[in-house]
Amino acid sequence: MNEVADSTLVPSALSRPYRYVRLEWNAEFAMLTVRMGVRPIQCYSLAAMAELQQLFNDISANPGLIRHFVMASDVQGVFNFGGDLSLFVLLVRARDLESLRLYARRCIDLVWWWETAATLGVHTTALVQGDALGGGLESALLHHTVIFERGAQAGYPEVLFNLFPGMGGWNLTIRKCGHAVANDMILTGQVYTADQLLRRGLVDHVVEDGTGAAAVQDIVRHMEPRFRGVIAALQARRMAAPISHENLLAIVDHWAVTAMSLTTRDMRLMERLARAQVRKVGGAGEGAVEEIKRMELDTAWGFERTGLSEWSTLT
């Protein structure tokens, strides 16, 4: 049986024997908190995505059952590392473009549910209590409200191994804070602190470490009297700044084709980052963020040795 908040049972329509997600239910606010826990790497593996898709299908099939959806992590220090780098390397080496496309389109299925949640009468919140990289940051930005604990960090490191965030990163970052910030974030691969993301407009609230769950409760409580108005406004926001399913599929297909051109060096960097992700999930003091900083430094020294000192050459 899933563990739950406030000692009440998860509604039977949503209760299944999941392996990678743990559900918490707050009956007062009809709030479902979904905590992902994927080992050995906290990422969007195919198996984990299948469980999320089943949960999303169950929510969609039971309109009105939940008003608030909260995405969080069950892994200390990590929200989500995004794409399954080890799988990507395996498929690129095998030249299996169609399987890579299949993975990418499964991601877009999840993205589209989050993107259209307001049409189901559901308000979504991301509670980020650890590192959110690549697709992890993309999935956080999909939520109507984004809360970071102060110690959390996030960024799009894909350019360091000659890829880009393909599951909505451009669309979502541009919509929240404009082209200039999106260019800076995506084309440099830099990792940002919670406060830096707040100043850039990507994060709605930054709270002290360990207070995230209480902050979610406070925000939901204050929203309840105007919930119907909030949902209507969020639907209108999508009309004002639309993201289309067709466009998401076109971008992610371009991402998959681009991945097929990765070099041996690129794939070794991906494997290096995947190993760092495993260390972080295992409780090590250093993990993926520290490895990204080392990769950035290696790149900088590479330019120095070849006489290129301007970071703009990265773009």
Give a nutshell description of this structure.
By secondary structure, the chain is of the alpha/beta class.
* CATH class designation: Alpha Beta
| Tally of helical segments | 12
Query: Main sheet: which strands, in order across?
Result: 1-2-3-5-7-10
Number of domains: 1
Number of strands: 10
Classified in CATH, the superfamily is 2-enoyl-CoA Hydratase, Chain A, domain 1
- The SSE string, one letter per element, is EEHEEHHEEHEEHHEHEHHHHH
- Oligomer class: single chain
Shape type: globular
Report Rg.
19 Å
Helix fraction bin? 40-55%
Named CATH topology = 2-enoyl-CoA Hydratase, Chain A, domain 1
Q: From the coordinates shown, what is the CATH architecture? A: Alpha-Beta Complex
Q: Which key phrases capture this entry?
A:
six-stranded mixed beta sheet, 315 residues, disordered C terminus, single chain, alpha/beta, 49% helix, four-stranded mixed beta sheet, 12 helices, 2-enoyl-CoA Hydratase, Chain A, domain 1, disordered N terminus
Would you write up a description of this structure?
By secondary structure, the chain is an alpha/beta fold. It has one domain (5-259): 2-enoyl-CoA Hydratase, Chain A, domain 1 (Alpha-Beta Complex). It is 49% helix and 14% strand. It has twelve helices and ten strands. The chain has helices spanning 46-60, 85-93, 97-115, 135-141, 169-177, 179-188, 194-200, 212-223, 227-240, 245-259, 264-281, 288-305, and strands spanning 21-26, 31-36, 68-73, 78-80, 123-128, 131-133, 145-149, 153-155, 191-193, 205-207. The strands form two sheets. A six-stranded mixed sheet has the order 1-2-3-5-7-10, with helices on both faces. A four-stranded mixed sheet has the order 4-6-8-9. α4 crosses α5 (169-177) and α5 (169-177) packs across α6 (179-188). The protein is globular. Mean pLDDT is 90; it is low at 1-7 and 308-315.
